[in-house]
Amino acid sequence: MALTLEEIARLVDGRVEGDAQLEVKGINSLDQASESDISFYFSSRYKDLLPRTRARAILVKEKTAGFNGPQILVENPERAYVKLAALFAPPVPRYPGISKEAFVHKSALIGNSVSIYPFVYVSERSEIGDETILFPGVYVGKDVSIGCRTVIYPNVTILENTVIGSEVIIHSGTVIGSDGFGFVQEEGASIKIPQLGNVRIEDQVEIGANCCIDRATFGSTLIKRGVKTDNLVQIAHNVVIGENTIVVAQAGISGSVTVGKGVIIGGQVGIADHLEIGDGVMIASQSGVAKSVPSGEIVSGTPAIAHRRWLRSMGIVGKLPQLNEKIRELEKRLGSFEKRLDNLDKGE
Q1: CB 98 within 8 A of CB 112
Q2: Neighbour-count burial of 321, counting CB atoms closer than 10 A to its CB (0-12 exposed, 13-18 middle, 19+ buried)
Q3: pLDDT digits over 248-298, tens only?
Q4: Contact of 236 with 273, CB cutoff 8 Å
């Protein structure tokens, strides 16, 4: 597909500086773009790449002298890039209909224009919405409901009673609806607590590869609309994650945690059970959250504390050897001073 810069400018609400009739056939980063690509520039960190890029044109917020070719001026180059990249991106490949090598139970309800690849298993009484795609190796358990235009990539396991909305993306290797980690101790043995609930995933959620979302003990583990998780994320039983929250790779959320909307949970964060994370909270990578966090807070560290306080604390950590030496010196001086006082009391 080829587009003129004028056409692109209309799509991204921008203005062309230079030859508006030049055509581009793709989009790429400054360092990897070819002569037929458009690129984007939104941070001064990449200014050294501008004179060296082979891109035919760039998306920028303000005209820059560092690039000699045509420039499309937009209010937000990152947002314009996302919009344009979606246009150039190849569509998700579809299998034409339902493969004869897939197993679809006769009681399952399959919508219109559904694509089911070979080696998919759809259990009884499950429902698959219109235009949904199930890639090879997908397992759909009993009484599962999947909405319209959802894409489920290879080797995803969706266990019984799970409810998945429309326009959801689930990447390879993810398991949804496995038992929550519930046990009681009796005479040194761990007795399993039956997990009778389910998982509900609302519309426009994206789940990364190799994630685990556990079914609830009762009720639902709930992932609300617009949530995005990275790879290798663990979400335990009865967790509720609010709208448009982002969970980065290797984060673990313990049972019965409630996460508000618009939260950002950094990589390798651990959250203890039964906590509440308020709306708009930001948790820095590798933090350990041991108590609830009010809305709007930014926290860091283990145990997690206010981010500014954590930064000050980390500044002190680097000075601990010097501080330790000063304390020892003060202790020696104090000991010498006390000895002199004792001698004075004794009249010496």
Answers
A1: no
A2: exposed
A3: 999 999 999 999 999 999 999 999 999 999 999 999 999 999 999 999 999
A4: yes
Catalytic residue among 105, 237, 274, 307: 237
Mean pLDDT of 220-232: 98
Please confirm, yes or no, whether 105 is among the known catalytic residues: no
Q: Is the pLDDT of residue 221 over 70?
A: yes
| Domain range summary for the chain, segments of one domain joined by + | 3-88, 103-308, 318-348
* Residues facing 190 on adjacent strands: 185
Domain over 3-88 is classified CATH 3.90.1720.10: no
Show the tokens assigned to 279. 């709306």
Q: Which of 74-83, 98-107, 138-147, 196-205 has the lowest mean pLDDT?
A: 74-83
CA distances from 36 to 1, 57, 300, 315 (A): 11, 9, 44, 48
Of 107, 115, 27, residue with least CA distance to 72: 27
CATH class of 103-308: mainly beta
What pTM value is reported for the model?
0.86
Q: Taking a C-beta distance cutoff of 8 angstroms, is the pair 234, 178 a contact?
A: no
Q: What is the pLDDT of residue 109?
A: 98
- Residue 307's pLDDT is 86
